[in-house]
Specification:
alpha+beta; globular; two-stranded antiparallel sheet; Alpha-Beta Plaits; 6 strands; four-stranded antiparallel sheet; single chain
């Protein structure tokens, strides 16, 4: 079964090829992506690796977390689906429901 891990605090100079190279020593990689700025193409400093084997992903997670790469300490953890992310305090405040507007004209008596 595959397992996806998140890798944060990547040096901005790390390319996709280097990213795969760093993690391929732990097992077969199904997919890898380094997130980039859509306008500049520059790395945003994080990426995701999907391993074919869950045990390989666990080993990579344990050995690569806090490992220094080009002077930066990687932050490696299991990737979570986007909808499971906790809301920020500023986003948690609910907006007041707006009164429904009626398209009917007022009835005259």
């Amino acid at each position: 079964m595959t397992k996806k891990i998140y890798v944060g605090n990547l040096p901005f100079s790390v390319t996709l090829e280097r990213f795969k190279e760093l993690f391929s020593q732990y097992g077969e990689i199904e997919d890898a992506i380094v997130m980039t700025n859509k306008f500049t193409g520059r790395s945003r400093g994080f990426g995701f690796i999907t391993f074919v084997n869950e045990a390989d992903a666990e080993k990579a997670l344990a050995e690569m977390n806090n490992k220094k790469v080009e002077g930066r300490e990687l932050k490696v953890k299991e990737a979570r689906p986007l909808e499971e992310k906790p809301k920020r305090e500023s986003e948690a405040v609910e907006e007041e429901p707006k009164a429904e507007e009626s398209s009917e004209e007022p009835k005259g008596e």
